[in-house]
Structures are given as C-alpha cells and as structure tokens.
Amino acid sequence: MRLTSLRLHLIEMPLRSPFTTSFATTTVRSCYLVEARTRTTDGREVTGWGECVAMEAPLYSPEHLSGAVEVTRRWLAPALLAVEDLTAETVAWHLRHVVGHPMAKAALEMAVLDAQLRARDVSFADYLGAVRTSVPSGVSVGIQPSGEETVRVVGEFLDQGYARIKLKIQPGSDLGPVRAVREAFGDDLPFQVDANAAYTLADVGLLRRLDEFDLLLIEQPLGEADLRQHAELARQVRTPICLDESIVSAEVAADAIALGATSVINVKPGRVGGYLEARRIHDLARANGIPVWCGGMLETGVGRAANAALAALPGFVLPGDISGSDRFYTEDVTEPIVMRDGAVDVPTGPGFGVEVLPERLERFSTGTVDLPA
After folding, report:
1. Which residues contact 139 (CB under 8 A, 6 or more apart)?
2. Residue 356 carries which DSSP code?
3. What is the mean pLDDT of each run of 10 residues along the chain (373 residues)?
4. Pick from 51, 32, 37: nearest CA to 119
5. C-alpha–C-alpha distance, residues 336 and 351, integer Å
6. Global pTM?
7. Which residue among the candidates 168, 230, 282, 327 is catalytic per the annotation?
8. First vs last Cα of the chain: how many Å apart?
9. What is the DSSP letter of 269?
10. Is residue 105 annotated as a catalytic residue, yes or no?
C-alpha cells in the first residue's frame, strides 16, 4: 500500500491521581497519536492509528515528546511517504538510516500496521499468533507518601480484582512499603517491585534484604547500560532480576540473557522500536526459557488494546501492566479498555480492534501536525 498522509494529534489527558516513580511524578499524560492515511493497491482508502509513548522529558529514556515530533516531521515521515509499496514489516528497514528514536519509529510502524490489518480485515491478535482471548491484568502502584497510604492504595486495587501488584520503589522508599504490603496482604499476593534504575551495585546489601519478601522479581534495579553489574547483582540476590530500560532490542536481550543479567524481561513495544521487534524479543526469550511480560507506558486505549494482543502470545507467562483504562483516566480516546475479574479481553476487531472517538480526541487535543505540510 501507499502512505498518502500522516497527522500527529498532540493530546493531554489528566490522570485520575498523580503517578510517582523514582524519576518523576506525572499528573497529565502528554503524548501524540499518529493518524496514517493509506491507499491500497486496489484503490481503497484505509486509516490506521498509532501511539507514541515518549514522555515529555528525557527521564525514562533519551527520547522526549517534542523531539519525537520533530524527528518524525523532518526525517521519519518523509522517508515513509516516499515509499511506493509500504508494509508494516518494512517500516523499520526504511527508517534504519535514522539513528535511535525507537518510540517515534514505533508509533509510525504501529499506525501502518493498523491500516494494513484493517485493509485485510485481520485482527492484531490473529496476526501475532495470540493463544489467549484474555490476559491477566496487573497494576502498577506509584510511590506513596507512607507505608499506610501504600497499603490503602494497594487494597483498593485488589478490591477491584487486579491479579498482580507492582510497586515502584526508590532509595528511602523501598523496604518499609514492601514490608507493609506483605504484612497487610500475605505471602500469596503476586507482588513485584520496580526501581526504574534508581540503585547502584553499591546497594547490593539493601537489595538483598528484599529477598525475605518472596517477590516475583525486582525490575531494573540498576542503570540501563549496566548489563555486567546486573549479572553480578543476580549472583548475589535470590529474587529474580527483570530488565526493562536495558532491553532496547532483540540483540541487547540476547546479550543480557547470555551474560546472566536477567531471568525475566519486561517488553515495552515503544521502547524497543515497535510491536514487530517486541515479538522478536518474545520469540528469543521463549527459546531461551526466559519468561516475559508486557509493560505499560500510561497508554491510551490505542496502545492498551495493542498491548493486550501482544500479551496473549504464549511466552507472556506473567501478568503485565495491562490495566483497565479507568486505572489512569476518567475518559479515554477510545471506548474504555475494561478489566473484569482480574483480566482484560483481547480485542478481536480488525487492526488493533478499537476506534478513536473524534469528540474525545478533540477534547484532549493541544494541536496537530500534518505531514506533508
């Protein structure tokens, strides 16, 4: 098919409550959706949607929102608009000359993929080879001001039926809240923590103390470039080490596995350059006996629906951060993704199986960028 035009919809969506990690507190989710208009070889006009998960500031990764818009406008979009016969499977190849910017590239691949599947009347789940019709829903709990408040918030999510709790931690807010949650809800609660690279190998003594809480895993305790240090840490703690920020491609995932730096992988499609690379990481990890789970980036319903389909692949054996839309937003730009009885249904409609609602998009819009201008 031929990509005829792109429109970037910049939006701001207020969160229901502040979400605090070791690197930032978010109260409003700023992102953009990609509207890709395409023409098939038989002359049909088909529109697909993608979502860029880059944050406003380069705190989680080197990318940031305004930079993603600029690199898309100046280099990525012109490259794709010049291709006569474009497929989702070739997007990454056509963009290979631009170094980095995986989240911007992933948003474009996502929009092209949605249009391609809609043109073929195929669901994303069927395209990937999903083996489940619903996926367990975990929830990510931000850093709270006290252990008591942490217990209260976790209790509310458990009452809603979430299947797994992930608690953000940082130095000074780690052992106390983890102990409070374990004591309040018992050893049977599926429970893990996420440091977002807040520690160093010098903190091994403190991190070893987390072993007593029988956690599912410690996610990204050390810096994203610290594969060797993660391997050393893994030898000194019993709790499984999971890598997130470090895993930016299938090649890096292979290195991390070979070094013993990780025994679990968090797959975030935007971070690795798109859903097709995410599937390659899944296949690699599964071949090596490494469990994977699907992480979240405060996605709208567009990305949330796509993540649910990805998490339905057979190697995703741990609950991911695929919460219902109402975990973060009072209103979504699509019909809400709903969590019921600890699970989210995998969409079955063409493409990602959700529709962007024009009135919601207009309500949250802060501007548009049309390409070509």
Report:
1. 157, 162, 164, 165, 166, 321, 323, 327
2. B
3. 97 95 94 98 96 96 97 98 97 98 98 98 98 97 96 96 96 97 97 97 98 98 97 98 98 98 98 98 98 97 98 97 94 96 97 98 98 82
4. 37
5. 17
6. 0.96
7. 168
8. 21
9. H
10. no
Those residues with Cβ within 8 angstroms of residue 109's Cβ, 6 or more apart along the chain or in another chain: 50, 88, 91, 92, 273, 274, 275, 276
**Cα distance between residue 314 and residue 4, in whole Å:** 36
Whole-angstrom Cα distance, residue 144 to residue 177? 8
- Residue 74 neighbours by CB under 8 Å, 6+ apart: none
CB 50 within 8 A of CB 110: yes
- According to DSSP H, which parts of the chain are helical? 65-71, 77-81, 88-94, 102-120, 124-128, 147-160, 175-185, 204-208, 227-236, 250-259, 269-272, 275-287, 301-310, 358-364
Please report the sign of the dihedral spanned by the C-alpha atoms of residue 268, residue 118, residue 313, residue 333: positive
d(CA 46, CA 38): 5
Catalytic, out of 29, 268, 304, 360: 268
Alpha carbons 283 and 293: distance in angstroms, whole number? 12
Any idea which residue has 């049909």 for tokens?
Answer: 44
N residues, the chain:
373
Question: 2-20 and 25-39: which strand pairing?
Answer: antiparallel
Distance CA 155, CA 339 (A): 16
168 is catalytic: yes
- Nearest CA to 22 out of 244, 226, 180, 330 is that of 244
How far apart, in whole angstroms, are the C-alpha atoms of residue 367 and residue 320? 32
Which pLDDT belongs to residue 373?
66
